[in-house]
Design goal:
This is L-lactate dehydrogenase complex protein LldG. Pfam families: LUD_dom (PF02589). It is a single chain. With 194 residues, this protein is α/β, with parallel strands linked by helices. The chain has a single domain, classed as 3-Layer(aba) Sandwich (Rossmann fold). Helix content is 23%, strand content 22%. It has five helices and eleven strands. The chain has a five-stranded parallel β-sheet, with helices on both faces. It has a four-stranded mixed β-sheet with strand order 7-4-5-8. The N and C termini lie far apart (66 Å). The relative contact order is 0.20. The mean pLDDT is 87.
Length: 194
């Protein structure tokens, strides 16, 4: 018997007789908090996003187009398909590898963690469009902000590709020296429309 066959035989023996009816029937109590009560979702979300070193703008919905033009500041931005009308601060730039940044919508945002979730639906772009440019401008509408992660998960379709963003891309080496822009945009700019 090869080592592989021996390992697989041990696994089969170990799981013999195990139930295969899924975690919901495992008898494990799951008393997770489904809703996080927050007095001001926008304020908490903005505070948490700032904690991640993101740039945050809170603007009235009727000022959104003008705010996006100010934020774009002449940058060549990728404008994904399905971006709401009026959001484009200029002509779109098609190539994420040569663009200055990207402008997207989002699927949902989490106040408790300062996290933005893209499901890459209309206006949210492809993963390459959102992870390659060095600057990501993301519009979050106040109605898209939920208190906690369980609420966000309940709004998402698990069959879609999900990108969870908590601040600009950053990593630290063994000496805890922070390096930004390694796995995605170095700058995250969030425009919250209220």
């Amino acid at each position: 018997m090869s080592a592989r066959e021996e390992i697989l035989a041990r696994i089969r023996t170990a799981v013999a007789g195990a139930r295969d009816d899924g975690p919901a029937d495992a008898g494990i109590p799951r008393g997770y908090r489904a809703v996080r009560q927050v007095d001001d979702l926008v304020e908490l979300f903005a505070e948490r996003v700032r904690d991640y070193r993101a740039i945050v703008h809170v603007v009235p919905e009727d000022d959104l187009t003008a705010a996006l033009a100010r934020v774009a500041g002449g940058r060549r931005l990728v404008l994904p398909e399905g971006l709401p009308g009026g959001w484009a601060p200029g002509p779109g730039h098609a190539d994420p590898y040569t663009a200055d940044g990207v402008l997207t919508a989002c699927a949902v945002a989490v106040a408790e963690t300062g996290t933005i979730v893209l499901d890459h639906g209309p206006g949210q772009g492809t993963r390459a469009e959102t992870l390659v440019p060095d600057h990501h401008v993301c519009v979050v509408r106040a109605a898209q902000i939920v208190g906690g992660v369980p609420e966000a998960v309940a709004r998402l379709d698990p069959s879609r590709p999900l990108t969870w963003i908590s601040g600009p891309s950053a990593t630290s080496d063994i000496e805890l020296n922070r390096v930004e822009g390694v796995h995605g945009p170095r700058t995250l700019e969030v425009v919250i429309a209220t």
